[in-house]
């Protein structure tokens, strides 16, 4: 039986890929598209890297693995979040399932793989790895081996290290991302040839990063609003080309009969306007803010902080010296405002008069018995409020073009199923591009994030090619949850009882009906402690995610 090689292209979209293929700029991906099977790959309902990669690697929906974004609700206080990591995924990942069946896996740069965990094979963690991490590999000794072979290897190029308001900073960021692709490809090629594996998965995140910052350069080179470095006009296509070159180099070293899969966690598109959900809720009487009207623009951080300390002293909020030391910048009101807002969410909101509130994933009802200070009774009262909000949201239009803000609005329990569905929003909103912004301090319902030129769409990329893969086939549909079941089928491993994903019809021999019906084992991960980040690690990773646009 052959091997399976998976390449994850974070944020890849056919909207860019197809035109570049027609121009002859992506020969290796073009070969896969023409000589293999392809499909638009539907992401998770909230098209976000954290839940999408978790569903990709588990074959289950977020209600079963528990990851809805880069924050997981605190079990003791639903108003608070903890940053996710590999221990937050409550379903077995593909490497764990393969280990149970005696198969070996290599996993490189998957965003939620830190801290790396024991598997039959090897692992190099990705996005959520702190810079101060003493180890980011399994086995631990692989770290030194990797850095000796590729000294410039990095898990993530963080945009907060660059001044993206200046063309020189933009150029430096772009070049750092291109260098990251080359270093990751070099490291992957070395590990591919030196280590044993049945499945090897490598995730390149650089497309996502470039498209967030430079999407406007694709069709409108003069869109950045500053003095232009015209060498950056083609940076997105150049990044796709760099990925294609790296992909081609990796293909050269693949063993015979290897099946190749390319997958993106979500697609991409232009980010034109932002809808501030909490401002909408406040404006319509669902949400009450205690302090922002007193300090509407937060122009005086020192005065604002004195007020914060007065309130936290009374309420017992967890604002400690160790958490604030070395992180406040009193001379940067914008940065100061964001940090303060993160610390004192509970104090910003008057929960005794708040019926509903929003996080980045959707709307939660402030429900009695579930939220610490809930006021809405579960049952008829909550359902009536949910229905009312749903009807209001689906009718909203953008003032600048009259288009609907939301393509659809659904109740959370109809979207997410499983033991962790109670962590999900009560209302899930679907947009054409991007997602509502959860800021509690903005003045307007509609706005524009100048730093975000592009944002996520649900429509990602799926390509399959190689020994036994159907040629020139286009599938009508495919889901991010189908990847793990399809890989398991290729290796002769049945789906677990809990898997939501299906086996994709990509094989030349067709699908065996008996094997499709076979279910064995479980995806339920053994109960274990969720290992939190330290305050220092949390501060660092939040800054990185904020720079990428994943946190307010």
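^ Assign residues to that structure.
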């Amino acid at each position: 039986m052959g091997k399976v090689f998976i390449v994850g292209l974070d944020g890849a979209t056919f909207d860019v890929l197809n035109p570049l293929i027609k121009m002859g700029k992506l020969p290796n991906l073009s070969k896969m598209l023409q000589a293999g099977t392809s499909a638009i790959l539907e992401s998770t309902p909230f098209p976000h890297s954290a839940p999408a990669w978790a569903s990709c690697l588990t074959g289950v929906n977020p209600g079963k693995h528990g990851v809805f974004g880069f924050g997981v609700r605190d079990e003791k206080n639903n108003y608070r979040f903890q940053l996710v990591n590999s221990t937050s995924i409550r379903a077995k990942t593909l490497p764990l399932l393969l280990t149970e069946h005696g198969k070996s896996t290599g996993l490189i740069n998957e965003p939620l793989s830190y801290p790396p965990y024991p598997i039959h094979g090897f692992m190099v963690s990705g996005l959520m790895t702190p810079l101060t991490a003493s180890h980011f590999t399994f086995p631990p000794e692989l770290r030194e081996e990797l850095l000796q072979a590729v000294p410039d290897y990095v898990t993530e190029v963080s945009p907060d290290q660059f001044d993206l308001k200046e063309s020189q900073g933009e150029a430096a960021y772009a070049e750092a991302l291109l260098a990251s692709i080359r270093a990751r490809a070099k490291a992957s090629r070395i590990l591919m040839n030196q280590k044993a594996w049945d499945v090897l998965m490598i995730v390149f995140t650089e497309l996502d990063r470039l498209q967030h910052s430079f999407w406007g350069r694709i069709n409108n080179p003069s869109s950045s609003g500053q003095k232009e470095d015209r060498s950056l006009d083609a940076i997105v296509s150049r990044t796709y080309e760099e990925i294609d070159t790296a992909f081609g180099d990796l293909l050269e070293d693949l063993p015979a009969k290897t099946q190749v899969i390319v997958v993106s966690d979500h697609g991409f598109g232009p980010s034109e306007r932002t809808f501030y959900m909490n401002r909408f809720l406040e404006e319509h009487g669902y949400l009450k803010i205690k302090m922002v009207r007193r300090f509407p623009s937060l122009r005086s951080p020192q005065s604002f902080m004195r007020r914060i300390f007065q309130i936290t002293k009374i309420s017992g909020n967890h604002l400690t010296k160790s958490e604030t030391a070395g992180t406040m910048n009193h001379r940067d009101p914008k940065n100061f405002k964001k940090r303060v807002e993160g610390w004192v969410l509970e104090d910003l909101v008057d929960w005794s008069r708040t019926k509903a509130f929003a996080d980045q994933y959707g709307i939660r009802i402030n429900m009695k018995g579930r939220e610490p200070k809930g006021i809405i009774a579960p049952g008829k009262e909550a359902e009536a409020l949910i229905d009312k909000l749903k009807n209001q949201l689906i009718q909203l239009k953008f003032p600048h073009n009259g288009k609907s803000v939301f393509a659809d609005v659904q109740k959370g329990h109809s979207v997410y199923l499983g033991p962790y569905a109670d962590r999900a929003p009560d209302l899930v909103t679907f947009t054409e591009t991007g997602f509502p912004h959860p800021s509690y301090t903005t003045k307007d319902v509609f706005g524009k994030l100048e730093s975000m030129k592009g944002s996520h769409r649900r429509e990602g990329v799926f390509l399959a090619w190689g020994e036994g893969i159907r040629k020139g086939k286009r599938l009508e549909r495919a889901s991010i949850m189908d990847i793990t079941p399809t890989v398991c089928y290729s290796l002769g491993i049945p789906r677990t009882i809990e898997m939501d994903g299906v086996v994709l019809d990509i094989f030349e021999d067709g699908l065996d009906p008996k094997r499709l019906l076979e279910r064995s084992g479980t995806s339920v991960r053994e109960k274990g402690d969720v290992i939190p980040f330290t305050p220092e690690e949390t501060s660092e990773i939040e800054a990185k995610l904020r720079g990428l646009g994943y946190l307010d």
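The first strand starts at residue 4 and ends at 9.
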